[in-house]
Design a protein that fits this description.
This protein has helices spanning about 70-85, 95-105, 110-120, 135-150, and strands at about 10-15, 30-35, 40-45, 55-60, 65-70, 155-160. By secondary structure, the chain is an alpha+beta fold. The longest helix has 18 residues, at about 135-150.
Length: about 170
């Protein structure tokens, strides 16, 4: 189990929240949200330039509209430990992990079935080695994450929508 420095949280994390790494206020750019990879936990927010190569975190970059509801934060808090528990890059069953990484990084919080169809269209000739039913496992994985997120809500909202320069 990793020991995380826990930043005191309010219900809504927004601009001027302190960066998890450098402890300076986040006042611009693309905030990066950090999640634990060994337990379902929201860790904090960092500047996109402070993250570097710290592999001990699941990271989610906020992109416009730069907002995550508590339900979405709960989903991501459950998602990353389950993702990191899947087979890694040196196993033949990595396909599920790759599909899930594609889902969360390229089309975050979108319809998983739309993302699945898009992925199949963009990679039609790429053979996929996988022991089992990849599509069923993909949907089953996301269903387990969603169920765990509903059972373990997170009372954190991320709202980086308003521009401070106004």
């Amino acid at each position: 189990m990793t020991n995380y420095y826990v930043v005191p949280l309010t219900q809504t994390v927004t601009w001027n929240h302190l960066c998890y790494f450098c402890h300076r206020p986040i006042t611009g750019g693309v905030p990066t949200v950090l999640f634990a990879t060994d337990e379902p936990m929201f860790v904090g927010v960092t500047h996109d330039t402070c993250y570097g190569d710290k592999p001990n975190f699941g990271r989610y970059q906020l992109k416009p509209p730069n907002h995550l509801s508590p339900e979405q934060v709960a989903f991501l808090a459950q998602f990353y430990p389950m993702l990191f528990a899947l087979p890694d890059a040196f196993t033949p069953n990595i396909a599920l992990r790759l599909w899930l990484v594609d889902f969360i990084h390229h089309h975050p919080m979108s319809d998983p079935m739309v993302r699945l169809r898009d992925h199949k269209k963009t990679h039609p000739d790429k053979p996929i080695r996988y022991e089992g039913d990849l599509e069923a496992d993909y949907i089953g994985f996301l269903a387990k994450v969603q169920k765990a997120a509903k059972e373990n809500p997170v009372d954190v909202e991320l709202d980086f929508q308003q521009d401070l320069r106004v």
